[in-house]
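[Discussion] Sanity-checking designs against the backbone

I'm trying to build intuition for which residues belong where. Below is a structure token string of 368 positions. I'd appreciate it if someone posts a full sequence so I can compare it with mine line by line.
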């Protein structure tokens, strides 16, 4: 059985099954060492043994999945989300300009509402448009993958009444949904909120983590450059561990590579498939925000963990943005936090750390 061009050979059966079995065996073999490290040599004195062990396991499982490199197939059926799941149709093609004008066309996209399906009074609510992380290749914004973070946004008293969690198209080998597919979906969802539901933009918080943070930055830039006359800007933006330099995916030499759970293989899988067919991707500001600061009237909250591999580049990007006159960019350092606890906090034992970060975000949002 052959797979899409560029997909790793081990993604094909029966090699796939043999490789999974072999890799799981290596995880089992490493468990005693990981247990010792968790109990006696945690990367941070503030980490529990549980957090240390879960981060090691998460990194190995993510590496396994990345080496196989099979992008999941998304469904536009409601599933267990029921009436909270929404299918959104793209609007007029002429709204997708500049970087969004491509051989890749806008398509219908799914999204999940939290905590419940919107009522007739939704236009009076403060709504977060949430763009999930996952290196552009995994996750779907639904309960299983994004429920923890989305519920934090609505249940933590941060001033957000509802969340629309977008199921944007995922990239994959063989030219599956590369840039700007996910980016187009973000604009589709934003236009749905302000045009179809008629939610005032001053009541919309744009929220994204990791690759979703990358997309949120791109959307703000796009509205400034191509849409200010007919697409108003949101109230503010909240970014958690935004992926601001996706083409620098080899993080093996990072001083925090032993503490964070992101392997280079995962970042490479996402970066390569997302930029397939894109010329000069490294200099495209809609793909690589780092080094491409811009002026914006949208206040931006940026959260990054002090134990995550993106710490240095996120801080550098934030400093670049802060240096632009008129920009309001606030950085919160999540003490001893790993990458994107809003998305993965419940998986790696950083629930409280994520709650603290969201509380800081709430204090920021309420000022505007």
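Best answer:
Here's mine. Compare freely.
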């Amino acid at each position: 059985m052959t797979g899409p061009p560029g997909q790793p050979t081990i993604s094909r059966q029966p090699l796939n099954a043999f490789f999974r079995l072999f890799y799981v065996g290596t995880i089992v073999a490493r468990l005693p060492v990981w247990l010792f490290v968790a109990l006696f040599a945690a990367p941070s004195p503030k980490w529990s043994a549980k957090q240390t062990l879960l981060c090691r396991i998460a990194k190995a499982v993510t590496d396994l999945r990345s080496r196989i490199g099979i992008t999941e197939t998304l469904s536009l059926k409601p599933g267990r989300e029921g009436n909270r799941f929404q299918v959104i149709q793209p609007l007029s093609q002429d709204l997708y300009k500049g970087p969004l004008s491509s051989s890749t066309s806008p398509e219908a996209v799914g999204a999940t509402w939290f905590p419940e399906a919107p009522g007739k009074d939704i236009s009076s609510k403060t709504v977060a448009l949430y763009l999930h992380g996952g290196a552009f290749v995994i996750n779907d914004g639904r309960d299983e993958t994004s429920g923890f973070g989305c519920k934090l946004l609505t249940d933590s008293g941060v001033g957000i009444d509802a969340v629309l969690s977008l199921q944007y198209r995922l990239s994959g080998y063989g030219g599956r949904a590369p840039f700007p597919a996910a980016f187009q979906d973000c604009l589709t969802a934003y236009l749905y909120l302000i045009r179809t539901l008629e939610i005032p933009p001053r009541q919309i918080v744009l929220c994204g983590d990791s690759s979703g943070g990358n997309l949120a930055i791109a959307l703000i830039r796009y509205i400034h450059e191509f849409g200010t006359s007919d697409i108003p800007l949101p109230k503010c933006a909240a970014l958690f561990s935004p992926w601001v330099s996706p083409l620098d995916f080899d993080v093996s030499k990072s001083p925090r590579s032993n503490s964070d759970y992101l392997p280079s293989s995962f970042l490479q899988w996402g970066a390569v498939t997302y930029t397939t067919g894109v010329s000069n991707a490294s200099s495209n500001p809609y793909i690589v925000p780092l080094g491409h600061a811009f002026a914006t009237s949208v206040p931006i909250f940026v959260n990054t963990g002090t134990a995550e591999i993106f710490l240095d580049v996120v801080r550098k990007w934030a400093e670049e943005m802060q240096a632009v006159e008129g920009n309001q960019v606030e950085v919160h350092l999540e003490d001893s936090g790993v990458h994107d606890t809003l998305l993965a906090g419940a998986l790696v034992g950083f629930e409280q750390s994520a709650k603290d970060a969201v509380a800081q975000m709430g204090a920021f949002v309420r000022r505007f």
